[in-house]
Design brief:
With about 250 residues, the chain is of the alpha/beta class. Helices cover about 55% and strands about 10% of the residues. The radius of gyration is 19 Å and the shape is globular.
Length: about 250
């Protein structure tokens, strides 16, 4: 049997190599960050869900985005993100599972909640969980933007979402570790954008002589930090999705 020290270094070596492989996913990661910021600007809701360890990652991500982006005490003077982890109510999840089947537990919730330009984030190591795939189909049907965090070559999930990051591993624990890292990266990035928003707003208030008149969100400093830069709206992102689909189908 391998001793714990050797096992640890071998595991960390696999984790490092897998992290290095994420260089090829940077374009999708940037797009996902833009999608989440657009949801914030448009007052849309982010729904995140997964099974087992992925359910825990979903709950953690919802906490970090919903509260963590507002600072340690949650007192940043801006509106927060609207984010819901669909696995967080065990009574509701088990009611759907018992009465309609486990494959409906997320799709049935989304059917009654999700709106166009909302965001659905599906987390699945294999990318083939039936309840995850049904939820993504329901989100797309509603006109929402779909995002996947997966591994194992992507499974069906990667090809059925608008944006996907596929962790290059067939090891469940390694995939879940990388999903957790990606969730932290996105949450911290969004927190920094909210901090920048607060600083920009404060500076504008000083320049305006402490005017109490609210300044519209889309005129503040975003993106690369240059004045006037606007993040894409949900409608822009949906148009981009349709263009991608048209190109892939020859339409």
């Amino acid at each position: 049997m391998q001793n714990i020290e050797a096992f640890t270094w071998e595991y960390l070596d696999k984790l490092e190599k897998t992290a290095q492989a994420l260089h090829g996913e940077m374009q999708d990661l940037a797009a996902i960050a833009a999608v989440l910021w657009s949801a914030y600007e448009g007052k849309h809701t982010i729904y995140v869900f997964g099974n087992g360890g992925s359910a825990a990652t979903a709950a953690h991500f919802a906490t970090d985005v919903g509260k963590g982006t507002l600072g340690r005490r949650g007192d940043l003077p801006v509106k927060g993100f609207k984010v819901i982890a669909l696995g967080d109510n065990p009574a509701l999840v088990t009611a759907w599972a018992n009465d309609a089947g486990y494959d409906t537990v997320f799709a049935s919730q989304l059917a009654r909640l999700i709106e166009p330009e909302d965001v659905a984030i599906a987390i699945s190591a294999s990318g083939n969980s039936p309840n995850i795939l049904k939820a993504v189909a329901k989100a797309r049907q509603a006109g929402a933007i779909t995002v996947a965090l997966t591994g194992f070559g992507g499974g069906r999930l990667a090809s059925e979402c608008d944006y996907a990051i596929v962790v290059d591993s067939y090891d469940y624990e390694i995939v879940e570790d990388m999903h957790s890292c990606l969730a932290h990266i996105l949450a911290q990035h969004l927190r920094e954008r909210l901090f920048a928003l607060t600083r920009a707003f404060a500076a504008e208030q000083v320049i305006a002589g402490h005017s109490a008149t609210p300044i519209p969100i889309r005129t503040r400093v975003y993106g690369n930090g240059s004045a006037g830069h606007k993040s894409p709206t949900g409608a822009d992102l949906l148009k981009n999705r349709q263009s991608k689909l048209d190109r892939s189908t020859g339409g």
